[in-house]
């Protein structure tokens, strides 16, 4: 099943590759100490007191050998004589540092500036016929807003994060839950923030149309309740 | 193909039932017929988590043969696609399930026609729990970042392996094996599955390879539950690594689940945590975990009972 810990070679004990740099070995040793220390909860109850001491001694020996260039070379030779194949993986090609001040570095074709999310959103608003159709209505309801958002493929969570408006309010706005909406002064601000985060222009005007819809819907809604 | 996932963790209170009910809800939402079986015999409360407060039928009805087929004690829950075998009204001596009843139950569970079956197992490492673990190659072990809980999960994993070894031998053979192991590796080594395995490989090579195949086919997963902010997030992978290195057991780390006080609130109010608090870290972790589980499907192990 497993190899005895004492029979592993030093590299296996510390879980580093045979060509690891010194700082990697130091990191690996620190990580191993965290796992095998007396007060570590990872290895709690897995070893007896002597077993743990043995492991810690072995780790220390492994670390002190590998961290010392001369000792390490000696140890590598010993392993090679014992027939253990080190350097299993290929070495990555050495990277030559590049000067960051070299202005002639870029020789390829010119690169156009990257499109930001906002620009992409604005373009898709202009391109989509469905959105233009909805925006040309005299009154815009919450479900219209939802349709626009779905057309743009923006998740509601993202708008919450961007606008800092509570998710519950946004859901109420979208689901036309009129009696659960906040006071009108807040609501206007929320709707405007919503519109702006979707790049729907002009936000003030669209918001006014939403309020108009709300007033007429509120009247009919109340009439129905009565 | 039915997938059976036993869920256990050695220590009580580590969130086994909560995880079972959450995974059940999430996988049922994928349009899969999901069954949760409350096998925490003697301290069952999965029905409370799923808001089925007064189940009419329970596991005891099957054990005491008032109902002949296991299918007939399956209950519907308020969640679509989610079914439960409850232990709410089990008889008071259910915890000591006799061997033949256990085998009968195991065989019946393996034949049930559901997409997913989760077994909510109790704490401890009694035979019943270990045998329910070995019904499938898949298992989920759950632990919390506390020494007590981690200690018990190591013990449970070792006990599961030990039980599997035990199933291949009869009493006298096993006794002889024990003597051999103790003679070779000294006092206390019989509690270590790896030293037993080494002896088996030399003395019973055939059984040794069979066992090795079994062990290689195990897909055990570890979930670290109730991870608080101050805890080390690398703890779970470290536990898996140390088990691989020192015990030779491959246990895959499936993910952390964050601690949240509101889990307690949701259980007290008997509502689904995932529905009440869907935008919490904990709910997110559970969803990721369910995806991980859903992707790692596996065929189940054939039962070996003589």
Short description:
The complex is a heterodimer of chains A (226) and B (306). Chain A has 226 residues and is mainly alpha-helical.
How does this model look, in words?
The complex is a heterodimer of chains A (226) and B (306). The longest helix of chain A has 23 residues, at 203-225. Helices cover 59% and strands 0% of the residues of chain A. Chain A is mainly alpha-helical and 226 residues long. Chain A folds into 2 domains: 5-81, Orthogonal Bundle (Helix Hairpins), CATH 1.10.287.110; 117-225, lambda repressor-like DNA-binding domains (434 Repressor (Amino-terminal Domain), Orthogonal Bundle). Chain A is elongated. In chain B, strand 3 and strand 4 (82-85) form a beta hairpin. In chain B, helix 5 (127-133) crosses helix 6 and helix 8 crosses helix 9 (205-217). An 8-stranded mixed β-sheet of chain B has the order 3-4-2-5-1-6-7-8, sandwiched between helices. Chain B has one domain (3-146, 218-295): P-loop containing nucleotide triphosphate hydrolases (Rossmann fold), CATH 3.40.50.300. Chain B is α/β, with parallel strands linked by helices. The longest helix of chain B is centred in the middle third of the chain and has 21 residues, at 147-167. Chains A and B meet through loops of A and helix 6, helix 8 and helix 10 of B.
How far apart lie the N and C ends of chain A?
77 Å
Distance between the first and last residues' Cα of chain B: 25 Å
Quaternary structure state of the chains depicted: heterodimer
Number of separate domains of chain A = 2
Mean pLDDT of chain B: 89
For CATH, the homologous superfamily of chain B is named as P-loop containing nucleotide triphosphate hydrolases
